[in-house]
Structure formats: C-alpha cells, structure tokens
C-alpha cells in the first residue's frame, strides 16, 4: 500500500483555501484541495532520502552511476520557488535547506507505514470574504515590497539600464512596475544554473552560513534576479495576485483569532 494512497482521504493533510477567488465579490472558496505544506514537506523529505540512499549505493556498487533520481536540481528549485511564492514555509530557501540537511548532513526520513484513511464525503464548498487590498500592511516587508514590486531593486535595475516591466495590478487596476526577469514562452528553469546554485548553497551552509534569517520572499527575488527561473508574459500578474491573496488570507485569520 503506497503512502499517497493511504493519505488521500485524510483531510487534515489538505489545504482548504483555494488559489483563486471571485474577482467581483472578493470571496474565495474554502474546500479541501491540494496537500498542505506540512504534507508536501514530508513528501519532499521522503523523496530526497530515497535519492540520498541511491547515491550512497551507487558509490559503493555502481561506480557512482545512479539508477534513478526522484528530485532533480530543477525540480528542487521549482519547489523552493513555489513555496516562497505562496508563503508556505517560514524562511527563504527552505526546500534547498532540506536537500542540504539530507545530502550533506546525513538526515534520513524513511517512509513510515500508516493506516489507510477511510473514504469520506467531501464537505460542501464554502466561501470566505478576504480583506480589501488596502487593508494589507506591507510596512514589515523589506523595501516596502508588494508581490513582485520592490522599489529599491527596480530603481537599481533602472540605473543599470535594464528595462522595467509594467503590469496592470489586478487588485487596483493601476499600472505597477515589477522587478526585471527573464522571459520565456512558459515558466522554465535552467538546469545547469539550478545545479550550481544548489551545490553552492550547500558549500555556504557547510561553512557556517544561515539562510533562516532572511524572509521567505528573498527566494522569489533571487531566482528571478539571477535568471535561474524564467517566467512567461502572463505569470507576473498571476503571481502578484497569488502573493496578495496569501497576505489577505493571513490578515483574515489574524483578525478572526484576535
């Protein structure tokens, strides 16, 4: 019995807030959807552990040639970027740090045997009203960042002669400058750049570096600024909406618990 099969009906492992909402009413759906961050972190740890065990076996028995790879460098960077974009983890480069701790520090996460969660009825969809965009307090964010808008990085890029892209902010309907990024037909990740960055990250960590002191959005800006991740023409606007919705949902939870 596979782990994923066993947990598929376990709603405690699901996120309930949808990625998108009704732009007219401002309501967002609440219903069990994709796996929550804790479960996704658990799955990543299992996959990276399998890769580490395979790497050790290959060094001893197959001249370093692995038979399989569960998570490539590019996939690891993509996971790290999306976790940062959705504000899932608590610090920057959290997925890369998991790789470091497993591949370099020897941590292992064997897949446990768990009981199969019984099939249950999915709760009916409900709707939650998120706060207005104007209610979001951005004062705690570095440089007054707002999604992909960072005034300091934008001005620095302009001084260096880079083209500053402008999108229509879906929250305000007004033009908004965003940080420069490399464009592609679809979101793409450069394999060699991903590999170099991950291994350099491990070297820095082994030398006493600490990335946990940086806010989570540093990952997003780093990957775009370095050109490791390329975005399509429509993705910046979508990413702005998603980043904003996460902050609006966080404000809702804070006000509800206050």
Compact description:
The chain has eight helices and seven strands, in the order αββαααβαβββααβα.
General description of the model:
This protein is mainly alpha-helical and 258 residues long. Helices cover 43% and strands 10% of the residues. It has eight helices and seven strands, in the order H-E-E-H-H-H-E-H-E-E-E-H-H-E-H. It has helices spanning 3-7, 37-61, 73-85, 94-103, 151-159, 191-206, 217-225, 235-257, and strands spanning 17-21, 27-30, 126-129, 165-168, 175-178, 188-189, 229-230. The chain has a three-stranded antiparallel beta sheet, with helices on one face. It has a two-stranded antiparallel ribbon with strand order 4-5. A two-stranded antiparallel sheet has the order 6-7. Helix 3 packs across helix 6. The chain is globular. The chain starts with a helix and ends with a helix. The model is unreliable at 253-258 (pLDDT under 50).
Which terms summarize this structure?
3-stranded antiparallel beta sheet; 258 residues; 10% strand; globular; disordered C terminus; mainly alpha
């Amino acid at each position: 019995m596979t782990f994923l099969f066993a947990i598929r009906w376990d709603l405690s492992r699901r996120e309930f807030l949808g990625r998108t909402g009704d732009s007219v009413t401002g309501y967002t759906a609440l219903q069990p959807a994709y796996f929550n961050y804790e479960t996704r972190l658990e799955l990543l740890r299992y996959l990276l552990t399998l890769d580490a065990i395979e790497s050790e076996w290959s060094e001893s028995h197959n001249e370093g040639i692995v038979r399989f790879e569960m998570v490539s460098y590019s996939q690891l960077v993509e996971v790290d970027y999306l976790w940062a974009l959705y504000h899932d983890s608590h610090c920057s480069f959290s997925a890369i740090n998991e790789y470091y701790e497993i591949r370099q520090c020897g941590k292992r996460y064997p897949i446990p045997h768990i009981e199969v969660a019984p099939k249950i009825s999915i709760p009916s969809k409900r709707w939650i009203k998120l706060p207005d965009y104007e209610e979001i307090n951005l004062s705690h964010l570095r440089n007054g960042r707002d999604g992909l808008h960072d005034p300091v990085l934008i001005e620095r890029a302009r001084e260096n002669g880079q083209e500053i892209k402008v999108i229509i902010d879906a929250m305000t309907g007004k033009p908004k400058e965003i940080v420069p990024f490399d464009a592609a037909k679809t979101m793409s990740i450069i394999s060699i750049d991903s590999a170099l960055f991950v291994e350099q990250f491990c070297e820095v960590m082994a030398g006493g570096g600490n990335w946990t002191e940086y806010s989570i959005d540093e990952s997003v800006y780093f990957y775009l600024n370095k050109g490791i991740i390329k975005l399509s023409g429509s993705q910046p606007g979508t990413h702005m909406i998603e980043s904003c919705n996460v902050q609006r949902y966080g404000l809702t939870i804070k006000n509800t618990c206050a």
